[in-house]
Amino acid sequence: MRNILLIARREYLEQIRGRAFKYSTILLPLGILALLAGIYFMGRNAGAGKHIAIAADSAPLAGDMRRQLLDDKAAKLTVDVVAPATQQDRDRLLELVRSKAIDGLLSIENSSTGSPTVTYASQSSMDFRTSGRLKYALNSSLVHQRLKAKGLTQAETDVLLKDVPIENLQVNKEGNAAKNQGMASFSKAFALAFLLTMPILLYGMDMARSIIEEKSSRIFEVMLSVVRADDLLTGKLLGVGAVGLTQVAIWVIATALFTGSALAAPLLSGNFALHFSWAEGLLFPLYYVLGFFLYSALFSGLAATCESAQDLQMFMPLAIGPVWLSFGILPFLVNNPGSGWAIALSLFPPTAPFVMLPRMGMETVPLWQFAVSIGLLILAIWGVLWFSSRLYRVGILMYGKRATLPELLRWLRYS
Q1: How far, in Å, CA of 264 to CA of 333, rounded?
Q2: pLDDT in tens, the chain (415 residues)
Q3: Which residues touch 207 (CB under 8 Å, ≥6 apart)?
Q4: Which long-range contacts link 292-295 to residues 24+ away (Cβ below 8 Å)?
Q5: Are 176 and 313 in contact (CB under 8 A)?
Q6: N or C, where is the chain less crowded by C-beta within 10 Å?
């Protein structure tokens, strides 16, 4: 045990003092925050500030549409109306679209069926936001005009067509209904998955690369003269795992200080108010430690069979596959947190750390699922450690060529 702790202390201090730890702790979250902020503001302003022309046979319909479009302050649209419009007017406006003098032309022509024929011409094939605004304004204006034809005033039609909001409530296991966090559930799920994924994969792969470097420099031959291979592997796992946990703790403390400040108050309100329970605070480090040991033990054993970092790249799908699957299921998880697929992935050891915690923020997960998930993770770690330690004992002293599958099987028998 003393040798294990000495090795763990050496690994921890060596990495915690390095520039890579300091830069990744500060620059990585700042870079991701800047990226998310850029995506948010670009999405918020998508389709805004467009110059649209409406060519319609009905002047009241076109005027009503213009009023509704201009009422949408977030869209910041400039709307020109030509009504009643002739074919020459439409051709002239279409030429303005081609020359980029205006961004789009909405043409509304009466038909014998009672429903108008509507087309929207623009140079962008993916302007979904503007098309959606035009569609909503058109259908709302058509209803307005039809109700007015029945004798209703503008004020009466506005009251009839006023949107009614729906408040979403979430029922817990006690039967109490609380306000649903809405978009905050997805934001929290993404944050938890990210906080688990980045340290587990980054430090797991970093440990694998350090094993290859030490193997190439033959430092292992000196170290193995005083400690056993199993103690060396366990000490490296404990030391590097503690580095990752330290980094996560710094991120969590910094986030807590920021969210408690006056600067974050206007940002984390309404649909973006994030709340973390005490259960999530307790289970997060547990799932981090279990996930780290699972992936790091696997990559440590495989790294001992490699001659270079390039050889290690062929094992990357073993880590990337479960992570892609876990992040890919997040949108599905928001709407179906209790589905069979969600439960299966939260119990499956490679994806359990990345799926179980996000599920907690979306529904009340039964205790037996936590117990089974943690139990299966511990069994998987034991199996992977058994496999990796046997590869490690032999592989770190093997040089000269890449190990093949028959050779790996022989190594397992030797050890």
Answers
A1: 27
A2: 777 788 788 878 877 887 777 777 777 777 767 766 666 666 555 667 788 899 998 888 888 888 888 888 777 888 899 888 888 988 899 899 888 888 888 898 887 676 788 888 887 765 677 888 888 888 888 888 888 888 888 777 777 777 777 666 666 555 555 555 555 566 666 777 777 777 777 777 777 777 777 777 666 666 666 777 777 777 878 888 788 788 877 877 777 676 665 555 545 554 445 555 667 777 888 888 888 888 888 887 777 777 776 777 777 777 677 777 777 777 777 777 778 888 888 899 888 888 888 787 777 788 898 999 999 999 998 888 888 777 777 766 666 666 666 666 776 666 5
A3: 236, 237, 240, 296, 299, 300, 303
A4: 292/199, 292/200, 292/203, 292/204, 292/237, 292/241, 292/244, 293/237, 293/241, 293/381, 293/385, 294/349, 294/350, 294/377, 294/380, 294/381, 294/384, 295/200, 295/201, 295/204, 295/319
A5: no
A6: N
The rounded distance, in Å, linking the Cα atoms of 84 and 62 is: 9
Every domain of the chain and the residues it spans: 2-32+181-414, 51-160
Amino acid at 244: G
**Chain CA centroid to CA 362, Å:** 15
Q: Which residue has the tokens 């890449």?
A: 402
Residue type, 143: V
